[in-house]
Amino acid sequence: PPLSLIYNLHDFEFVARHAMDKIGWAYYSSGCDDEITLRENHLSYQRVLFKPRILRDVTEVNTSTTMLGTKTSCPFYITATALGKLGHEDGEKVLTRQAARQDVIQMIPTLASCSFDEIVDVKHPLQTQWFQLYVNQDKQVTKELVQHAEKRGVTALFITVDAPQLGRREKDMRSKDFEDLSHVQDENDNSIDRSQGAARAISSFIDTGLTWELIKWFRLITKMKILLKGVQCVEDVLMAVEHGVDGVVLSNHGGRQLEYSPSPIEVLAEVVPILKQRGDYEKLEIYIDGGVRRATDVLKAICLGAKGVGIGRPFLYAMSTYGDDGVYKAIQILKDEMIMNMRLLGVNTIDQLNELYIDTRRMNRC
Ligand code: FNR
Q1: What's the CA angle centered on 185, arms 326 and 142, to 5 degrees?
Q2: What are the pLDDT digits (tens) for 32-66?
Q3: Which of 60, 139, 155, 179 is the most buried (most CB within 10 A)?
Q4: Using alpha carbons only, what angle is made at residue 267 by residues 241 and 92, rounded to the nearest 5 degrees?
Q5: 135 neighbors 222 (Cβ within 8 angstroms)
Q6: Is the CB of 27 under 6 A from ligand 1?
Q7: Is 291 in the pocket of ligand 1 (CB under 6 A)?
Q8: How close is the Cα of 312 to the center of ligand 1, in Å?
Q9: b vs e for 245-265, b when ≥16 Cβ sit within 10 Å of the residue's Cβ?
Q10: Based on C-alpha coordinates, what's the Rg of the chain?
């Protein structure tokens, strides 16, 4: 269908399911095991309701905010998703271009299809990019990668901590008839095991021995902000505070890692009051990702104390089906939804959002 018939982010997924080739669709859409956590990421948002306020002047509405010290047009960012070329020949560069046009932050994945430099080369001078890091067993490789990212203007490092081994994504494994992994920049070519799907094939270099000591080491090698991506419980958020990280992403990797991991919006609702009570809330920024498809989801997360929200698959689907125009439209749809929903909620700016606009009673009953 023409792009003009796309009304929301779900529509991109519907078109992608029918239009994408089997391998790309399997890799992008899959979750781990029985996809319970994948579904729960969506369902959990349905248990959070709003408490809208009336009779306020909502003529002017502004969606802009600050994330990690950077001004940006809205409180969501394009999160890191590997293998962009499974969906579009220009891969991650499509996302970079449209992030620039829309003033949205992009997180570059370690396992991008395009090389890191190709992606940074197409960025606008004023555009902000973050870098998602899979820590290589070879510390020297990691160090070079990180220092190169910093030199090229990346402002924050998101260390993925929920993937010492990649989860079983069986849809992806079933499409193991994939011929070549030339989409992938991988130094460990000869260790590729083609029977395990695209995801597992490319991840064998990831260090399984990481501990909290890691943070000290990263502070020595870089001045970038350091965040942990894939924190999944209150205890680990408190550990993260103790270790002085700049932020965490509450995330279960889009339901692709540990089945029965909790959904991030629920962890968020639990952790923020505890941080506030301990006086720790101002010490770091909290982000969440997984299952966000509507501006209402974004707004719920902000009300519950997130600084921003990552969105993954919708942009991949938009890119794979309509290329640059699709990604532009996906962001525009979210921004339009943001403005309308802020008005209906009775707020003018992002910093007015707080827990008073939210009703979590249904959440607690499940
Ligand atoms: C991911 N994600 C991910 N995360 C990461 O830290 N490194 C990576 O290489 C990837 N790769 C990746 C590929 C694909 C196809 C998907 C769908 C996801 C996880 C990603 O950053 C994020 O946590 C989720 O995608 C968020 O969920 P939604 O928005 O896709 O529902």
Answers
A1: 110
A2: 999 999 999 999 999 999 999 999 999 999 999 99
A3: 155
A4: 85
A5: no
A6: yes
A7: yes
A8: 6
A9: bbbbbbbbbbbbbbbebbbbb
A10: 19
**77 included as an active-site residue:** no
**Whole-angstrom distance, CA of residue 242 vs CA of residue 153:** 28
Q: b/e per residue, 87-108, with b = 16+ CB within 10 A? A: bbebbbbbbbbbbbebbbbbbb
**Active-site hit among 162, 172, 236, 297:** 162
Q: CA-CA distance, 151 to 145, in Å (whole number)?
A: 10
Let me know the angle formed at the C-alpha of 182 by 109 and 200, rounded to the nearest 5 degrees.
60
Q: Which sign, positive or negative, has the C-alpha torsion 293, 294, 300, 301? A: positive
The number of residues making up the chain comes to: 366
Closest ligand 1 atom to Cα of 316: 15
**If you search the block for the tokens 């948002």, which residue do you land on?**
45
**CA–CA separation, 358 and 366 (whole Å):** 17
The rounded distance, in Å, linking the Cα atoms of 354 and 304 is 6
Q: How far is the CA of 253 from the centre of ligand 1 (A)?
A: 5
pLDDT tens profile 63-119: 999 999 999 999 999 999 999 999 999 999 999 999 999 999 999 999 999 999 999
- Quick one: what percent of the chain has pLDDT higher than 70? 92
Decide: 77 and 106 in contact? Cβ < 8 Å.
yes
Task: Output the residue whose Cα is nearest ligand 1's atom 16.
Answer: 81
Sign of the torsion angle spanned by Cα atoms 91, 70, 290, 226: positive
Q: Is the CB of 136 under 6 A from ligand 1?
A: no
**Greatest CA span in the chain, whole angstroms?**
65
* Tokens matching residue 88: 């579009």
Q: Is the CB of 197 under 6 A from ligand 1?
A: no
